[in-house]
User: Fold this.
Amino acid sequence: MNLEELMETIPAYGRDLKLNFSSLKLQPDLNEQQAWGTIVASAVASRNAELTQAVLAEAATHLSGPALEAAKAAAAVMGMNNVYYRFLHLASNENYKTIPARLRMNVIRNHGIDPVDFELWCAAVSAINGCSACVDSHEKVVREKGMSEASVLSAIRLAAVIHGLATVLDTEKANSQIPATVGA
Assistant:
């Protein structure tokens, strides 16, 4: 199912998300690569297979091959980093912060696209995953590299909407698996 067809399956309670997605994907604060890379990274991070599949297919018409791979890489590496650094932030034992991470993160420097875009996608995924340390770190980098606050929030809005759409799709899938006799 393509992305447009998938959006047509969004039920009435998810209408705001559907409308937000159609307006936010074309916002002036982000260029096409920034917007579609954010959409890809956010869909991957939101872990809904149906949404991710439709987004990847559509994004292939908006992103170069390297940008598409970099967006997926941002979601993957932040999936790891957000768990690790969120733990460091949440743990009261300060000694953990003195121990080297010993985690490979080469893709953060070797992704092959504009570093601002990759950092923006890392910030969006970190927002979805709730890692304040990573959100702060990546937001700081994109701002230092000249990205406006409006652009950062545009990407985060996209991430929020994609995550909300994934939630709706997960709910509908779960609902469709409930036997008809339940709740009758």
About this structure: Helices lie at 3-8, 15-24, 32-46, 49-59, 65-90, 115-129, 132-144, 149-176. DSSP finds eight helices and no strands in the chain. The CA atoms of residues 9 and 169 lie 9 Å apart.
